[in-house]
């Protein structure tokens, strides 16, 4: 087999379909978020509109100071896995902070949100005898991979549909072990799950609940505990999974729940046991970010105000976007080639960075620009973005919203 030819042919196919991904070389500037500079363009400044650092906490002075102090105190790396090299006190402190955030007995830290989902779901679904997993049709790839790897019986229920979930679960006896796996906010649509109603169905059928709050922690709830905290139902969730890489602006993933459940995953999950721990400085920065957002509502309030302002401005010019109660604003294009051309034009002509979202991240025919406003975007930034989108929409003669 000509391996290199195979690789090239596959890449050519992606290009022909308009799905080839181009990484733009950007450099974030400390203290200037959401502004970044574009390499090779005489350090031209661009405004980033698609960062998952939703609140700009990756630039917060308290976070940076904590990380600098931890580097000076501990050095760069963790030295290995926690099983072999020992647990840094910063890891222990972070897990305590996370357990406090979600009012749970315990928490367990992973190197990323992807790993925390994959490792936890694989471990739970494979080791609970006869477990049947009920997974939302819109779940993230990390959740799907974890469930697949477990080889557990899996039923897919319609997206955010408690009635369909109830129908599927009714096919199994009450004593059959079950786990309902879903997200609170879905990253590409921005919609919020009916968490309470799904918990009601799970309780009816004696099932565990596994809730992914990666796009909600830091941003929702009186202390940033996510949608479950906002709704006052954190105590009804068996496993809360989330990330430190979005609302908290750092990196890492975690689960929170009972001490027995966290210890079970810690003891059996290969994705935890055999992975080098996060550097202590990362954990220190995460602690600072979480503590700040537990007491500060200012970032959340301004964030929601900017989201509302952006949606209203898009409506005024007729640029179509998916409506939801969440903070993610998908602007719908519906064609991969045009979506990429719009992204390139916004970057080259208007100094706006918006990455195109194509298949397989979203279904074919629903290609989009995924906008994530932050508290650091100004009203002038919003006006420039919306006017630029309106101009580009006219250039491509795209359909306007009614």
Structural notes for this entry:
The relative contact order is 0.16. The strands form 3 sheets. A 7-stranded mixed β-sheet has the order 4-10-9-8-7-5-6, with helices on both faces. A 4-stranded mixed β-sheet has the order 1-2-3-12, covered by helices on one side. The chain has a 3-stranded antiparallel β-sheet with strand order 11-14-13. With 402 residues, it is of the alpha/beta class. The longest helix has 20 residues, at 298-317. The protein is built from 15 helices and 14 strands. α6 (141-150) links the parallel β5 (132-136) and β6. The N and C termini lie far apart (54 Å).
Low-confidence stretches: none
Query: Based on DSSP secondary structure assignment, what is the total number of beta strands?
Result: 14
Could you say which overall geometry the principal axes of the C-alpha atoms support? globular
Please indicate the percent range of residues in DSSP E strands (runs of 2 or more). Answer: 5-15%
What is the helix fraction of residues, given as a range? Answer: 40-55%
Pick out its properties.
4-stranded mixed beta sheet, 15 helices, 15% strand, 402 residues, 7-stranded mixed beta sheet, alpha/beta, globular, single chain, 14 strands
Give a brief rundown of this model:
With 402 residues, this protein is an alpha/beta fold. It is built from 15 helices and 14 strands.
Topology:
Elements: H1 3-16, E1 26-28, E2 35-38, E3 44-48, H2 61-74, H3 82-85, H4 89-102, E4 106-110, H5 113-127, E5 132-136, H6 141-150, E6 153-157, H7 162-169, E7 178-183, H8 195-204, E8 208-212, H9 227-230, E9 239-243, E10 253-257, H10 259-268, H11 270-273, H12 280-295, H13 298-317, E11 329-332, H14 336-350, E12 352-353, E13 356-357, E14 368-371, H15 379-395
Parallel strand pairs: 3-12, 5-6, 5-7, 7-8, 8-9
Antiparallel strand pairs: 1-2, 2-3, 4-10, 9-10, 11-14, 13-14
Helix pairs in contact: 2-12, 4-12, 5-6, 7-8, 13-15, 14-15
């Amino acid at each position: 087999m000509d391996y290199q030819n195979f690789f090239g042919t596959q890449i050519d196919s992606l290009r022909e379909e308009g799905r080839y991904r181009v990484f733009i070389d950007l450099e974030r500037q400390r203290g200037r978020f959401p502004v970044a500079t574009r390499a090779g363009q005489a350090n031209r400044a661009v405004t980033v509109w698609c960062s998952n650092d939703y609140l700009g906490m990756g630039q917060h002075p308290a976070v940076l100071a904590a990380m600098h102090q931890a580097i000076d105190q501990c050095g760069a790396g963790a030295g290995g896995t926690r099983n072999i090299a020992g647990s840094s006190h910063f890891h222990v402190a972070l897990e305590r902070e996370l357990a406090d955030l979600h009012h749970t007995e315990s928490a367990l830290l992973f190197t990323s949100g992807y790993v925390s989902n994959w490792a936890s779901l694989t471990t739970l679904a494979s080791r609970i005898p006869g477990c049947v997993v009920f997974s939302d049709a819109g779940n993230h790839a990390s959740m799907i991979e974890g469930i697949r790897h477990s080889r557990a019986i899996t039923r897919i229920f319609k997206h955010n549909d408690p009635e369909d979930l109830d129908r599927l679960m009714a096919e199994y006896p009450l004593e059959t072990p079950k786990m309902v796996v879903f997200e609170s906010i879905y990253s590409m649509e921005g919609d919020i799950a009916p968490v309470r109603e799904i918990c009601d169905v799970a309780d009816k059928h004696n099932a565990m609940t596994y809730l992914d709050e990666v796009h909600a922690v830091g941003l929702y709830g009186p202390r940033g505990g996510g949608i479950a905290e906002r709704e006052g139902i954190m105590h009804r969730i068996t496993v809360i999974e989330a990330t430190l890489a979005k609302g908290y602006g750092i990196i890492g993933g975690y689960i929170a729940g009972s001490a027995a459940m966290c210890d079970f995953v810690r003891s059996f999950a290969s994705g935890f046991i055999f992975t080098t721990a996060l550097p202590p400085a990362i954990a220190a920065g995460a602690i600072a970010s979480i503590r700040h957002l537990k007491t500060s509502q200012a970032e959340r309030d301004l964030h929601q105000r900017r989201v509302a302002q952006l949606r209203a401005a898009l409506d005024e010019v007729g640029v179509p976007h998916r409506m939801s109660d969440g903070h993610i604003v998908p602007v719908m294009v519906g064609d991969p080639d045009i979506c990429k051309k719009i992204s390139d034009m916004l970057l080259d002509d208007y100094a706006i960075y918006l990455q195109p979202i194509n298949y397989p991240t979203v279904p074919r025919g629903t290609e989009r620009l995924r906008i994530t406003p932050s508290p650091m975007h100004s009203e002038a930034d919003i006006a420039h973005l919306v006017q630029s989108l309106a101009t580009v929409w006219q250039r491509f003669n795209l359909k306007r919203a009614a």
